[in-house]
Records
---
Amino acid sequence: MGLLHQRHILVAISGGIAAYKGAELVRLLKKQGAVVRVILSRGAKEFITPLTLQALSGEPTHSELLDETAEAGMGHIELARWADLVVIAPGTADVIARLAQGRADDLLTTVALATPAPVAVAPAMNQQMWANEATQDNLRQLVGRGIQIIGPDAGEQACGDVGPGRLLEPDAIASALAENFESRLLEGKHVVITAGPTVEAIDPVRYLSNHSSGKMGYALARACADAGARVTLITGPVTLTPPNRVDRVPVTSAIEMHDAAMRCASNADIFIGAAAVADYRPESSAPEKLKKTAGENRVISLVQNPDIVAAVAALAQRPALVIGFAAETTELIAHAREKRHRKGLDYIVANDVSDPETTFGSDQNAVHLISEHEAHYLPLATKQVIAERIISLVAHHLGSTSPTSG
Ligand code: PMT
């Protein structure tokens, strides 16, 4: 499984002779396991048909900013949020100029402005246009805003000129895109993550649990592995495929999750409690299926489960960073701050679970990352992008952090 596997890549093709190479890029990204959607500018459609891109990507293509059918399905803001990465290939001189100006007068430029994901441009144009100071100024602006410029290549051009401005070959563009998902931020570090729900047995066939899908915790595991960490993922019962290069420790109940966390966390550099751990479990679990007694209510006595993340934070050999989540439906920030303090955590990720877009099971999330002295809002994006942001915001504290005093 490569770095692009399951990544949501939005390929925006603008109108130049190199547009046909955009089709090859889509094919290569799909081959590497990416989920690809395509934006075709009006100009691009003069060079390549939507049908070709639809066949290669397996998804409908997108062209119009205001399109009733698209807005009902996946409109421009949804597309912008769906993407883990946006690549504009080829990026003509005109598109580069319009991106530099921050224009939002077609679908491509609007999505580039609206996306929280990284944006890359693979320029392609005549060598004289490339060399023009106006183009170079525009490129400097894009680089200054963190936009990745991939290429161009130099050589013989379609117009007969020779020089820089050829679109880089699609395999080189795909490799450069993959690098976005690899960092060495956590090289040599050991990260332990809890994910998913816990399941507390009432009897052999009934249980108490919650709606956690594990997606947030698994996204964190992948982000840490991609950042070079050794990752132990202690996971409640979920249906997700674990990311590559991750040691999975399957558990069922909160007690099992607690025991696994205690075994693994004392050698770890980072502990992340993303699991939705049941606060209570039935006092005893019946060995046989409980029988219904006509006309009688049943009372199940519940006892408290251990607080796993708090126990890790209290270890004598505590990980340098202990991070929890706070799933809240009211007073998000105040409750999250109180939980961080009470549980002795370095960071807490405040998660508004009253919003169906960011709640259990969703592919997206929007969170606040809060420490004693910092607060960062991470706006709505895929859980993978949120996970990567969390990791890049906390990683630099490693080595310089001391356990929180609470
Ligand atoms: O799994 P998904 O469908 O992707 O959904 C993601 C999520 C909503 C589950 C996740 O983002 C999230 O918010 N996880 C924490 C859910 C939760 O249990 O929150 P809490 O506020 O009850 O707990 C606070 C913290 O204490 C959490 O880090 C939790 O893991 C930890 N905890 C809670 C109880 C307990 N007995 N032991 C714990 O370690």
Note: The two ends are 40 Å apart (CA to CA).
---
Amino acid sequence: MSITTLGQFIIEKQQDFSFAKGELSRLLRDIGIAAKIISREVNKAGLTQILGEYGSVNVQGEDVKKLDIIGNETFIWALEKGGEVCAMASEENDDMIPLMGAYSKNGRYVICIDPLDGSSNIDVNVSIGTIFSIYRRISDQGTAPTLADVLQPGNQLVAAGYVVYGTSTMLVYSTGKGVNGFTLDPSIGEFCLSHPDIITPEDGKVYSINEGNAGEFPQGISDYLKWVKETDKATSRPYSARYIGSMVADFHRNLLKGGVFIYPPTAKSPNGKLRLMFECIPMSFIAEQAGGISTTGKVRVLDVEPMEIHQRVPVVMGSKNMVNKVLEFMNK
Ligand code: AHM
Ligand code: MG
């Protein structure tokens, strides 16, 4: 048998970490379990009335839960039960959630999570995702976790990854030693290694940005967008525009095929839209681990000191040469 399951792979890699006592492996396994549950819910979403607004009541008189609430609750359940994580910050909650279960309160890790990213695509059957990042806790084990435990810069990450619920469900993660991707085989209910050692192309011809906001972009971005549309065989221009509106799916395509993903500052949102802790840091970690670059336009995303859980930052990430080209325009 030539398949390697996520569980087998995690155990094989545990020896890469001198400090590992098996907790990180168990935590990654718990994330895999939560991802499988969410994938199951996503796949039957149109049938089970979990689309639509939270708070309404379905024909059976049951409360309708939005998929992003289900995703959030699934992670809280899996992590509290798993016992490796003492606190979680979620895009769905205003404040950090201490996990004070019998085991979890002594957990050595904290996690930041966007349980269901790409909310506008949920109800229309377009790819969505889950994004996670894992840090070692700073506070002493056994004490109550503090905000400082979750407000760590990306350069302190232990691991990060995402799940894309697309034509198939894939989990992609890194513990700082490269990037590996696993596809869920529904017939055996396991994530199986399908994309070992992902390296992103240095170049590409896809740019991903919400050009509907073009009137609000900084001059450098507007100039870059003019440049990508010019015809020049030597640089494969014009480039192709691809924008799903689910960061995970846009990022995943560009990671595999080459491309640049941009969410710039706009006049209305001077820090862009995307969240540092939940979206930008974990995806930047994966981008860099695969040989790409990720920057706010001014500094490396992984070096931004977080000030608050829901902080936003602009982001330019993806293939090395493409990101550098955007920076060249931004710095003119
Ligand atoms: P969400 O967390 O509410 O789903 O928003 C994040 C999403 C990203 O997945 C995506 O890249 C971006 O918002 C799209 O935003 P816009 O519609 O402004 O282009
Ligand atoms: Mg999100």
Note: The pocket of magnesium ion (ligand 2) is lined by residues 91, 114, 117, 278-279 (CB under 6 Å).
---
Amino acid sequence: MAADGATPITVAWGDGIGPEIMGATLSVLEAAGARIRPEFIEVGEKVYRRGITSGIEPGAWASLRRTGVFLKAPITTPQGKGVKSLNVTIRKTLSLFANVRPVVTYDPFVPSGHPGVDLVIVRENEEDLYAGIEHRQTPEVSQCLKLVSEPGCARIVRYAFDLARAQGRKRVTCMTKDNIMKVTDGQFHRAFDRIKAGYPELETDHAIIDIGAGRMAASPGRFDVVVTGNLYGDILSDIAAEISGSVGLCPSANIGEHCAMFEAIHGSAPDIAGQGVANPSGLLLAAVMMLRHIGQADVADRVHDAWLKTLEDGLHTADLARAGVTATVCDTQTFTQAIIARLGERPSQLWRRGGGGQVAIAPAPRAPRPRKAMVGVDVFLDWDEGDRDAEVLGRRLAQCGAPGLALQMITNRGVLVWPNGHPETFRTDHWRCRFHAPADQAIDHGDLLALLERVRAHGFDFIKIETLCTFDGQPGYSLGQGQ
Ligand code: NAD
């Protein structure tokens, strides 16, 4: 906090409709008495055009580190190679591990087909398939690594429960696909089951992501807080946003231990930029989240109430305009002035969630390291011989094994093809060959190197290995499908 009692925040005007909706948002905050001191930085199109592929000036990081609070208007991401997504860069650089997206419907003032929705999606923001580690391993097969960490799971799940508690919510739902991904998604689900014990006042449940997403589309009113991984959360939050009635209504926060970024979920809307008709609500509600985050819940409530009252009075931007509920279609400026004129008023029908909303963020927890033992190895081969007959491969590869590290199975795209494969199974040029020690006896890296040397000597092209380990005696690897 600065000497004048104001909280310094970093602000970016953005591209397209960005400056219009940021101007609107800042004037409402000022009129509402927000105790903030903005520092302006440049991000987006102009920065990209200067050849800075990250879209953010190197000097801007100093402001973000100083303030730890970033209110950002949408930017235009240039098409083409070599340009990095600014959002991903900021999220990862500043470890903004939690993506928080509330979705609310405002029937009857913004008809939605799903009255009474008031949910929040808490999406893990740093891990999963978004690590961006991809390889083409054979002429036919590519892979993308799905990385999930114990502290990453524990941190996001704990944040979801703390948010539920801070906002007086009743239920937390976890969504994973751990019926298929038992190790990675299983880790997320197990963290959920462990952590929920500390929040006995909250109801909890778990849904497999496919049926969970279906239910989100069909009956979103049944959800309260949803916590999920990065990719599922990305998809789920867009499904949920569709429900609200306009993309212009939804805010989001990206929360980290040292910094937080607040923005609308929509983009820079180049099709309506410069016309003065954009709906500033998504960014304004993001600013409301920001005010709660910096401990100004009183101002947040004033702004939120005035905005709800404006909707109730039928003053709507063009994207919200509906026959029968809209009294006046407003441009951005008129809508903003209508909100300012209602500061201090309360809505009569629409309801907003109370509560301080501040969630304390603990450092990522670190569990004691378990006892680790290597008991085998998966050797991946690029093999395109013998009509891709797994029996031929199995016979030749078995000769590479040793009494303490024998060939146990071969799979192709995860399906068991040796021993006792099925002739119908399609086979690519990518083979996972598992060598395992008998009775989980521990092997060492010397055993691995000797095995790989024999595999090489038999003329095989190995493309990678994955060691098979137990942790406190529990296997840390999956079985082959059909094993
Ligand atoms: P968009 O969200 O900008 O626009 C989609 C549609 O919604 C358009 O018809 C637009 O007019 C309308 N719309 C969006 N916001 C509105 C608002 N506040 N009021 C009224 N109507 C609104 O999505 P897009 O067209 O796919 O993307 C445009 C640019 O924005 C792209 O360069 C994209 O990369 C970028 N983008 C940036 C962010 C961000 O900075 N966080 C997020 C998404 C997209």
Note: The chain has a mean pLDDT of 93.
---
Amino acid sequence: MSDSSLSRRAFIKQTGASSVLAGAVASTSFAQRVPDPPGKKLGWAIVGLGNLAINQILPAFAKSEKSKVTAFVSGHRDKADKLAARYGVPAKNIYNYQNYDELKNNPDVDVIYIVLPNSMHAEYTIRGAQAGKHILTEKPMASTPKDCEEMIAACKKAGKKLMVAYRCRYEPFNQNLIKIAQDKELLGPIRVVVSDHGFNIGDPKQWRLNKALAGGGSLMDIGLYALQATRYCTGEEPTEISAMEYTDRSDIRFKEVEDMINFQLRFPSGALGQCTSSYGYAGQNRIRVIGTKGWVELEPATGYTGARLRMKIGPNLSERDIRPMDHFAAEMDHLSECVMDNKEPLTPGEEGLRDLKYMMAIYEAARTGKTVKV
Ligand code: NAD
């Protein structure tokens, strides 16, 4: 029987996870989380009412404690009206891409969440900051490092916060993974972080396959999760990157952007990252951190729900029970809290810029066949 075919209960039973280990890593598993009484909530405008906004972000406001949706920016008034009726957004707070800048006169809005195609993040972040609002922008932060730098500068000039929506940093499975990965007593020093992220992309007409709108292919979209994982698990920045790409250019989906791109990263401690990214293979979504004494893995790792954390230290296999949390509610509340308490977000613009620079190095390494120092 393969590991993945074991149910969690059967897995723990069959492997006989030791109580010592379970106690060491799972003591907070079922801690009760009592919600705070209703308090102040900041007002959020959502820019771009596509799949992510409709199916994930808007429903997440019901679970937010510090954030409420108060405005929409959309090119489709009919869609915006319907969603406004559902979420209690007043008609006066529905904007389009032309009158977006008028948000500056609207005190109902404190924060703007940009959920547009990648290459549009920069313009709407800069205009949003100029309108005097704090910004959460979806990942990737932009399609070039230069755009990221301009976004950071615009928010600094306006005195506003800028955060990149790296939702996995705000949810407990990835947070536990990081804690265990960096516990040298438990895992020993990290030797390798292996991460595979990809899926078979559908509609060949979608913006993700359009270079001008997406900035790149699988790497900019899904491979970014693998890159992030190597960095947050090690807690280090890479010094060298190598990469190899394969794209079937006769596939109608891949006329402009890459399909498969595998990359390796070297970290100062000697740890290595080993990543795959694809728009053309069966769904892969996992992170495994291998230390000298054992390993810890998440699979699925970065989906919206269903993550599982397992580990093997010496002979002991175990799975950790973790109470899941809505990723989007958690990330939005983090930024609302940073605004209220004047703190720097965990994933500021500078973090998005670093990833864009590494992704450019991955493309360069794949193109030249040479290791790139970063
Ligand atoms: P989508 O295509 O479903 O939605 C994009 C929205 O932008 C649509 O409402 C569309 O009308 C609007 N739009 C405005 N101008 C456009 C143009 N010129 N071309 C195409 N659309 C235009 O996309 P999505 O899946 O919601 O992704 C939006 C952003 O969110 C992307 O940056 C993506 O990388 C990111 N995203 C993040 C996650 C995550 O887990 N954090 C998941 C999915 C998407």
Note: The two ends are 42 Å apart (CA to CA).
